[in-house]
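Section 3.1 - Work completed
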Amino acid sequence: MVKLAFGSCGDSFSASSIKAYVAEFIATLLFVFAGVGSAIAYGQLTKGGALDPAGLVAIAIAHAFALFVGVSMAANISGGHLNPVVTFGLAVGGHITILTGIFYWVAQLLGASVACLLCSSPPTDRLSRRTPSPELARSRAW
């Protein structure tokens, strides 16, 4: 049954709510960083080769551990959603307000975006170069 509650700004900007948003941000960042990072690492180790069953299992296990750590970290603070769809379900079910759900979504999307930016940053061995790497497109270098 749908129980929508919009909520108030006072509840959504309390100290415990801000703490919950930060927890969702950090937990989602860790989850996406570990998951995407494991897929990138597999691609680097196999020189872009085809995905074999063992590699798929390794990436899935990395995702599972990252999800476990993220939910464990944020469960007592924010509920450990880590996923906008879970947040949507809780908002529609009336367990959190719509306004709080929107702020959770923002924190989750920002956390995932920052994690992807961290995964796409250049390796540290190339930071001292004065010219772009040969495998890097000019449009991305500048």
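Second construct:
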Amino acid sequence: MSFLSQETFEASTPAGVEETTAPGAGAAASSRNNGDFADLLEKLNEKRTTAREDCLRELIAGLRSYTFVDQAIANRESVFSSLVGLLRRSRETEGVLCAEALGMMMLLIGPEEDEIFNLVRAPLEFVITRGQSERMRIEATRALALGSFICNTEEERTLAHLAFFEALFTGESEGGRASEELKAAGVDAWSLLFTVAPRGYNTHESRALLLENFLHLLDASSADLRVAAGEAIALLREHWRQEGLAVHDVSADEEEVVDSIVDRLQDMAREGSKRMSRKDKKAQRASFREICSAVVDGQRPEEVISYRTRSFRLTSWVKMKQVEALRDCLQGGFLTALAQNTVIHDIFDLDPTAFDVPVERSVVAKNSELGRWRTTTRSRNRRSREKAKHHFTEEGEDA
């Protein structure tokens, strides 16, 4: 799988740092992790909701820290089946965690996994359109977009999901009215899939309609939605320039909408609403200066991602939107995945041998997400045991 060329994703020279694992430590860690993961799968069937939520948190932390990745992939059918089953009957917190875990798992299993994607697609779509919890709908939107981006190989399915997310942020979804936070997630989901949209996706009519919708969203009260819409416009303009869209190819309706968008972006790059704080105004100006430069002048965005002594430069909106989706999914585990995840290497055409990482991770760092979770859980369990012991002692004295 190769979504991108290597032209604008550059790496510095390798660091050449060697790291080793103590003899026998890798095998012992692998055996311990196998046992821990088997326990996790069992705990997903717990009757208590709080126990299942704790289990999901540990699963997500273990996937992000790459503690359970091999075990999760080896048992992927069981993992996906359990997560989908929980998602169908979950309430807010558990449902959010299920969707988050599903997104992580789809990133890990990689491309050309249509069978598994079709297993999770319908439940996620149902949550997005029919779910009662706004947080669940937002997380399900992110998971569905990432799954379609990574696992799906059917062009018709990609086109269907582009239309699905467009309906979400235009208010035409089957689920009816969506909050601005959900619309922002919908715009970001649409933008991610647009980076791999089939050629010929946009016609004159659809281009003009998309631009009108994004122009309308630039006046939203949510800063996240305004920025998402602005970045989507920049992504569209970048794509059309690369496709060599000439002036005579632009319809009169399109030209009029583009002029309105340029005026609006320039206003937003200079000032902000009186209702906004000084900090928010500053953030909006910075975001929209970059967006305005891209739309008006064709200037490329630029971001440098550093890992140890290596650095990577992103210089296109395609790459920026793809990395943004990966960061949302991986959060604190992004750099770990950047070094070890072969799916990410394929997406960005990276050489996996350029990363100096240990062959096996034998110890969970105390300050890692999984390490902090385990510390908190152990403390909570210790307090519960002490409370039960104290209660038992008091009953004995009363007798």
